[in-house]
Predict the structure.
Amino acid sequence: MLLFHCTKDAIEALTATHQGKTHCWVDNAPPPEGAQPWGWQLHAVKIARRQVLVAMHGDTRFVMVFWGLKKGDGKALLSMFYERIANHLLWLAEDSGVMDRAAARKMFDRVMRSHGPFRFHAGSDRSVQAHINEVVRLCRQAVADNDGRLPDNGEQAGEFDEFLNQSIRRVKGSDYFVPADAWLSACLRDFADFDAEALAQLGKRRRAERQHAMVEQLLQAAEARGLLPDDPAHAQMVQWLEQAKERL
C-alpha cells in the first residue's frame, strides 16, 4: 500500500473547501491488516506563487516534484505520481541495462498490484525532511534561473527529477549513496525478485560507470582549459580513466 506521510504544509495543500464543505485527503485511516506500507514523505511549498508538492521515498531518498497543482487536488497528484513512477522505472532499468522495457513494465505491474491502494497520513520524519528542504532549495533556484517559469509535469519534470536523484546523499549510520541507484535496487529487490548477489553486482557496476564518467568529464574540462598531453596531470587523468574502464 502506498502511504504518504504528510507534513503540515502538505495537509494544507491537500485540503480544499467547496460550497461550504471542506474535504481533506489526509484521513489517517489505518492500512488494511497485512498491508506492507510503501512510505513516501510528502511536503508542499509555494514557488512563484504556485503550489509545488515534493514526494520523497523514505528508505532511498528518491524524490519526485509535482509542479503547479491545484489546492486539494489529490486525484491529480496520484495520477501524476504513478505515471512518474512508471517512467522512472523504465528509464532507470533501461539506462542500467539490467532489463528490457517489457520486463520493466512487468515490474511496474507488480508495483501497482502491491501499492495501487493508498493512504494519506499526518506525520513526517526529520531526516527525510532535511533532504526535502535541500530539494526545495534547488527547485526555487531552477525556477529563478528559468525567469520564474515552472517546469511542466511531463518530460521537463521527469528530467529535473533525474537531476535531483543523481545527487549524493547520506543518512545517519550509512555510507554515501545515489538515490537513483538505491531506489532502483529496492524496486528490483521488491518487485523483480533480484537477490542480494545480483544487486551487489549491479551496484558495483553503477559505481564504476559513475567513476568513469566523472574522470572523463574532468579530463575533457582540463583539455578545454589548455592542459597538454605531455603534462603529468594529463597523464594521471588518463591513467585514472583506464583504471575506471577496467572496472566496468
